[in-house]
Amino acid sequence: MRADKLLANAGFGTRKEVKKLLKQGVVMADGKKVTQGSEQIYPETQHIEVKGEPFFYREYIYLMMNKPAGLISATEDDFHETVLDVLEWDDVVRRPFPVGRLDKDTEGMLLITNDGKFSHALTSPKKGVPKTYEALLDQPAAREDVEAFSRGIVLEDGYETKPAELLVPESSPDRVNVTIREGKFHQVKRMFESVGKKVTYLKRIQIGSLPLDETLAPGEYRDMEDREIHLLLEEAYQRTKNGTVSSD
Question: Residue 38: exposed, middle, or buried by beta-carbon count in 10 A (0-12, 13-18, 19+)?
């Protein structure tokens, strides 16, 4: 790969800024200075250093975060702290973005990547990848709510949601799990409002069959394992192949 393209993709700046960096003579490949943007660098086989520090190139990153309340799912905002503001600089320079969104006051599993195809596979209405939430309600859920969710809920604006799965524990019927396959604005909260209940706490605990890593404290994140990435992509592919899709 061209040296200027590699460094720009890695977040070292624009092509113009990278050109200045190269002219400084601080980029090394196998012990030799790389000063021209057109020079070829092979990060898979060469030892590369930038300003004396080893450089490891990753085209894509895949992160799992336990999002805390108070952060917004955006790449930047003039008034609020975003999920990218808590990332390490080495991850920020890869120009990642949230896969889908969680409301500001909603906690739990949020995936962050710079791979557009991966994000599309998990958020496209044609895939209908399920997302599961834990919700605390202001009053116990009833059997009628389970049946209503299974049919689809008509929201206040007239939109009818796709069927959803509502699990109500006998021991704590006010703390429920709900699985949806679309992502309308404030959808879970609005679905419960339509059956006369208010969500007082909401946390996403699973995407597809992949659960949130509960060892992550709120605000912490980690790199996803290859098996986790492949699992989600395979599930999205199988849902399309089998025709089990839903509209957003």
Answer: exposed
Which residue is listed with tokens 């008509």? Answer: 154
**Residue 180 CB-density burial (10 A; 0-12 exposed, 13-18 middle, 19+ buried):** buried
- Same domain for 159 and 222? no
CB within 8 Å of 149: residues ≥ 6 apart: 163, 164, 165, 166, 178, 191
| Location of structure tokens 């990060």 | 43
Same domain, 142 and 198: yes
> Same domain for 194 and 167?
yes
Q: Considering the domain boundaries, does residue 246 fall inside one?
A: no
Same domain, 43 and 151: no
Closest CA to 183 of 110, 237, 135, 125: 125
pTM of structure = 0.79
Q: How far is CA 158 from CA 44, 134, 161, 238, in A?
A: 54, 25, 9, 31
Cβ neighbours for 130, distance < 8 A, ≥ 6 positions apart: 179, 180, 181, 206, 207, 208
CA 182, 188, 190, 195 dihedral sign is: positive
pLDDT digits (tens, 9 = 90+) for 73-118: 999 888 899 999 999 987 887 889 999 999 999 999 999 999 999 9
Q: Any catalytic annotation for residue 4? A: no
> Does the residue 156 lie in any domain?
yes
What angle separates helix 226-241 from helix 116-123, to the nearest 10 degrees? 50
Q: What are phi and psi of 99, to 5 degrees?
A: -90, 105
Among the listed residues 4, 85, 103, 157, the single catalytic one is 103
H or E segment to which residue 23 belongs: helix 15-23
Give the domain range for residue 20: 3-54
